[in-house]
Specification:
Layout lengths: L4 E6 L13 H13 L3 H7 L4 E4 L10 E5 L11 H7 L3 E4 L4 H14 L3 H4 L9 H8 L3 E2 L17 H23 L9 H15 L3 H20 L7 E7 L8 H4 L6 E4 L2 H10 L1 H12 L3 E5 L12 H19 L5 E2 L10 H7 L4 E3 L16 E4 L5 E5 L4 E2 L3 H5 L1 H11 L4 E6 L6 H12 L5 E3 L1 H7 L6 E3 L9 H7 L7 H27 L4 H11 L8 H25 L6 E8 L6 E6 L13 E7 L2 E8 L3 E6 L14 E2 L2 E3 L4 E4 L6 E5 L6 E20 L2 E7 L1 E12 L3 E12 L4 E13 L4 E10 L11 E7 L6 E6 L2 E4 L4 E3 L4 E5 L2 E8 L3 E5 L3 E7 L7 E8 L5 H8 L3 E7 L7 E3 L1 E3 L4 E9 L8 E8 L5 E7 L5 E5 L5 E4 L2 E2 L2 E6 L4 E7 L1
Parallel strand pairs: 1-2, 1-3, 3-4, 4-5, 6-7, 6-14, 6-15, 7-8, 8-9, 9-10, 10-12, 11-16, 13-14
Antiparallel strand pairs: 11-12, 17-21, 17-41, 18-20, 19-20, 21-42, 22-23, 23-24, 24-25, 25-26, 26-27, 26-32, 28-29, 29-30, 30-31, 31-40, 32-39, 33-34, 33-36, 35-38, 36-37, 37-40, 38-39, 43-46, 44-45, 45-51, 46-50, 47-48, 47-51, 49-50
Helix pairs in contact: 1-4, 1-7, 2-8, 7-9, 7-16, 7-17, 8-9, 11-12, 11-13, 20-22
């Protein structure tokens, strides 16, 4: 009797075009067909390595064959072929995708399949004829049929050993595919491999598991030899398990005792897991110490940090690393996130935090450079780099991923210095192919060695390729995600988080200086306060955001009062106002004085006064990180003859003119005096999702995405001498039918002596946007003359290039046209869309947005564009006092940085150490991309100065010259300086 032959039909013409784009169900059936065919009972009977054949050219003589027809092949088969093959004496197993069910049916087919002689009509005569004929009629096996005797063949074989054989089937297929994708000749049908596989199957059937595993190991090693013919160096497999508290209890069941796993979870998630399952964290701590488990992460949460202020980003890292250190006794060496969180400052932050490795790929939406590499040097905008992995992970729980597995391995082997494939999964792993890879690895690293992410970076040689990506190559998905999740105020929540952090940093500055003046440093509560202020990221619940805003505002008011009382200590009783500048550069501000104050004398720092009606405004110069005290009563100043600041539809000061449009109610243009060019215009608009035809002209159809802005009135509400103010009203019109989409009111202010235009917009929409926020929204539109103008945006308080279309710019957008520099500060409005070469939309209202009042600051010819942004977010603070002036004089400063491109972003107290009375920890940031030697001066002479990294470790002592410390700043560098007193 001839032995049966096992054959798998495939939906392709050869393994060279093996499909990689099937649906999940079809991919499952196809992959499981190749695994199930290697059951040891099948191999022991057929005595051959299972073969395959094109589904559109099935065997013409199917008699005596067991033929697996995956569901992906159904449409390839000739009409009625399966029934004809069954009638010819074949066992056709079709329509089964599940692996266990497929194995069951194959064993049943093996049990019922007649000999080739029977199928050709040479049946022996005798009593058994009737049974043989009945069996012959049951050779077409379908999912609905079941033979109770089908479980008999191979039923005594160890299930774990059976799983190893099925993994060999997966390995054989994937290596055969990989060999072809590497354009190499396959030698997998060699006699030694066949003999070892048959020997292993015979031993398994005979119940000799040790011998079966020994021979199977040799077969796996022959597969490894075949792979090493075309890729003779190590390759790597990385198991990345994504963990959240809800799934933590499922983790132990999916961890392997032999193959390392890397766990990715935020520090906040680990904190919760440790509270709920402390025994799990203790076990994992032992596994981490033994390098069986790696940890990746870094930040406390995976909030929308891509354009958060730098102090918020550093808090996330500092708080997160402290949690890792507490739970695991160490911090992660590999930074990774599930959510998008890239920026060009991340490499520097990682390097300064003791994290030399990174995963440069996102597992959710967002745009970033997608040049896939297993290992490269990711260099930030400041020149600091970390080793990074950027290959997009394969989903370990999807059959479609394993259809692409050989292709992805080939890409890594052909293109990478160190080839590696990463699998991403949740603890609920339910598919068999990843387990196949683990079993393969236990016999031989055919496709690579399982390592942790940290192990991969440490075991492989330093990368030879460096990538320095520009900020315009990154685009965060936060706004689209917030709208899709139907979160309230998807714009205001992000802008509010920015404003809240700036206010908190000013609060910490004031509290630190107040403590220093009093000689009492209180670092403990301040750390807790920072955690408290950061408890509501931009994607938090609206109620939590509201409560946090209130608490930070109250804390700021208390800190300002404490500093205002500490400055004039010992001064005589006198009613006045302390005006505090919490920013590290001198600036000219306009503030409102408390009720009951008389106009101050225009002298020294005081430049202009406006006391008219309810307005009690004074414009004055404040020193950097300093103050000025004004008395409540002052001798009157001589009246100054000054021209009006508003006439007709024009507002002006000594620096520029603002011309308003009667037709639109917007800003017609902003220009300097004389023949200077127009630099900027402004309108409001509603953007429709699709272009609409709004008329015809001599050039053809007139189409537009945008509505029309029509003005109704312009009213001059203040004409000087120090303030020009106008209020315009009107409608935003759908010009196709005349419908009023929204009413608007704009208030435009220009102060004498200040190079800023203040713009306040109020909307009353009748129609609200829906769907995609980037294509349907209300916007404030700006236009300029020159299409070649260079646009720069502020991201994490640094100047970065602007992409061609959608982008985020939470701090500013600068338009440089020759010698003209115009800076738009969109206060709490971080999302923008560039249209054409000379227009910019700042998004105001999208789906779910409830805010209706918006503010902008427009600066003319400001050399350092971050300054007007900080001016808008951190206004000068006015605190009434009962004593003054200070004994040292009405004005003074605490900290000063002489480099205008270097800003102080944070000030914190440090505890008193032996021989010191405490000190200050000061964070510096270079904002313009130009290296500079900065001199940081303090009103009190320090005893010592040192630079520390973001982990609090000493980097270098710094030279002191009296009250000044010198700090060398690279471009975009974040420097932390400690001063001890």
């Amino acid at each position: 009797m001839n032995r049966p032959e096992l054959l798998i039909l495939v939906p392709c013409h050869g393994l060279e075009d093996f499909p990689a784009d099937l649906g999940e169900s079809e991919a499952t059936g196809l992959l499981n067909a190749f695994a199930a065919a290697y059951h040891p009972a099948l191999i022991a009977v057929t005595r051959e390595i299972p073969g395959w054949r094109r589904a559109d050219d099935p065997p013409g003589d199917p008699a005596g064959k067991i033929i697996i027809v995956p569901s992906a092949c159904s449409s390839w088969l000739p009409h009625a072929w399966a029934q004809n093959a069954t009638d010819s004496g074949a066992a056709v197993v079709e329509g089964i995708d599940d692996r266990d069910r497929l194995v069951e049916k194959l064993l049943a087919a093996l049990h019922t399949l007649p000999s080739r002689e029977k199928s050709r009509g040479c049946e022996p005569s005798g009593p058994g004829l009737e049974r043989d004929q009945d069996l012959g009629r049951d050779q077409h096996v379908t999912p609905s049929q079941h033979d109770p005797e089908a479980d008999a063949p191979g039923s005594t074989i160890d299930p774990e050993l059976i799983a190893d054989f099925l993994a060999f089937g997966t390995a054989y297929l994937q290596l055969d595919l990989l060999t072809r994708r590497m354009h190499y000749y396959s030698n997998l049908d060699s006699s030694p491999l066949r003999l070892d596989l048959l020997g292993a199957a015979d031993a398994a059937v005979a119940g000799d598991g040790d011998e079966a595993r020994r021979k199977l190991k040799r077969a796996f090693e022959l597969l490894l030899d075949a792979r090493e013919r075309f890729f003779p160096v190590d390759s790597y497999l990385i198991d990345m398990c994504l963990l959240i508290p809800r799934l933590a209890e499922k983790l132990p069941a999916t961890l392997s005792a032999t193959e390392p796993t890397t766990l990715l979870a935020t520090a906040a998630d680990w904190e919760q897991i440790a509270n709920e399952q402390p025994e799990l964290v203790e076990r994992l701590k032992t596994d981490v110490e033994g390098n069986r488990v790696g940890i990746a992460g870094g930040e406390y949460r995976e909030g929308p940090t891509a354009f958060a202020p730098i102090e918020s980003v550093l808090w996330e890292f500092g708080r997160g690393l402290a949690v890792y250190r507490k739970l695991f006794g160490r911090t992660p060496k590999v930074w990774a996130r599930r959510r998008y969180g890239f920026s060009t400052l991340i490499p520097q932050i990682l390097e300064r935090s003791g994290m030399p490795f990174a995963v440069h790929t996102a597992l959710d939406d967002g745009y970033y450079p997608d040049d896939e590499q297993s290992k490269f040097r990711w260099e930030g905008c400041d020149g600091v780099g970390v080793d990074a992995f950027s290959r997009i992970p394969l989903a370990a729980d999807g059959a479609t991923s394993f259809l692409r597995f050989s292709q992805r391995v080939a890409e890594a082997m052909e293109g990478d210095q160190s080839a590696a494939i990463m699998f991403a999964r949740w603890p609920e792993l339910s598919t068999p192919w990843f387990e196949d890879l683990r079993r393969i690895h236990r016999y031989a690293p055919v496709f690579g060695k399982f390592v942790t992410l940290e192990g991969f970076f440490q075991e492989t040689s330093p990368p030879s390729r460096t990538q320095k990506h520009s900020a315009k190559e990154y685009f965060a998905p936060y706004l689209t995600q917030a709208v899709a999740r139907e979160q309230s105020d998807p714009i205001a929540r992000f802008g509010g988080a920015l404003a809240r952090r700036h206010l908190f940093d000013a609060t910490m500055w004031m509290r630190s200086l107040a403590g220093m003046l009093r000689g009492r440093f209180e670092p403990g509560p301040l750390v807790a306060d920072e955690d408290f202020a950061e408890r509501a990221p931009a994607d938090a619940d609206a109620d939590l955001i509201s409560v946090t805003d209130r608490d930070v505002a109250e804390s700021s008011a208390a800190a300002a009062k404490a500093l205002a009382e500490a400055i004039p200590a010992g001064a005589p009783a006198a009613r006045g106002a302390m005006i505090i500048n919490p920013l590290s550069f001198p600036r000219r501000v306009t503030v409102e004085l408390p009720e009951g104050f008389s106009p101050p004398k225009i002298d020294g720092p005081v430049k202009h006064v406006l006391f008219k009606g309810q307005r009690r405004a004074v414009t004055l110069d404040l020193p950097a990180a300093g103050f000025h005290w004004l008395p409540a009563s002052s001798p009157p100043s001589a009246a100054k003859s000054e021209p009006p600041t508003a006439e007709g539809t024009m507002l002006r000061n000594e620096l520029f003119e603002v011309h308003l449009s009667d037709a639109t109610g917007g800003i017609a243009y902003v220009k300097g005096y004389g023949r200077s060019p127009k630099r900027l215009s402004q309108q409001l608009a509603y953007r429709f999702p699709r272009k609409r035809q709004i008329g015809k002209d001599e050039w053809g159809d007139d189409t537009s995405y945008y509505s029309e802005m029509r003005g109704r009135s312009i009213e001059l509400t203040c004409t000087g001498p120090s303030l020009a103010e106008a209020v315009t009203t009107g409608d935003i019109i759908d010009q196709t039918n005349g419908d009023v989409l929204s009413r608007f009111k704009q208030t435009i202010r220009v102060w004498r002596g200040r190079p800023y235009i203040e713009l306040k917009i109020e909307l009353e929409p009748n129609r609200l946007p829906e769907g995609d926020p980037w294509s349907n929204h209300y916007a404030c539109r700006f236009a300029w003359n020159d299409e070649t103008a260079v646009l720069t945006r502020g991201v994490q308080q640094t100047a970065q290039p602007t992409p061609d279309s959608r982008f985020d710019a939470p701090h500013y957008v600068e338009i440089a046209e020759g010698d003209l520099r115009t800076t738009i500060v969109p206060i709490e409005l971080p999302f923008h869309r560039k249209t054409g070469g000379r227009m910019l939309d700042t998004l105001l209202v999208v789906a779910g947005e409830t805010r209706r009042t918006f503010r902008f600051l427009i600066a003319c010819d400001e050399a350092y564009p971050l300054r007007p942004s900080l001016d808008a977010y951190c206004p000068a603070i006015v605190v009434p006092t009962e004593h003054g002036p200070p004994l040292t004089g009405p004005s003074g400063w605490f900290l000063h940085v002489d480099a205008k491109n270097v800003q102080i972003t944070g000030v914190r107290p440090i505890e008193a150490k032996e021989g010191t009375n405490g000190g200050l920890r000061i964070r510096l940031l270079e904002t313009e991309g130009r290296g500079k030697t900065a001199r940081l001066s303090c009103f009190k002479t320090p005893q010592s100065a040192q630079r520390i990294n973001l982990a609090g470790e000493l980097m270098e002592p710094l030279p002191l010259h009296g009250d000044t410390v010198t700090v060398e700043m690279r471009k975009y560098e974040i420097a932390t300086v400690e001063l001890s007193f």
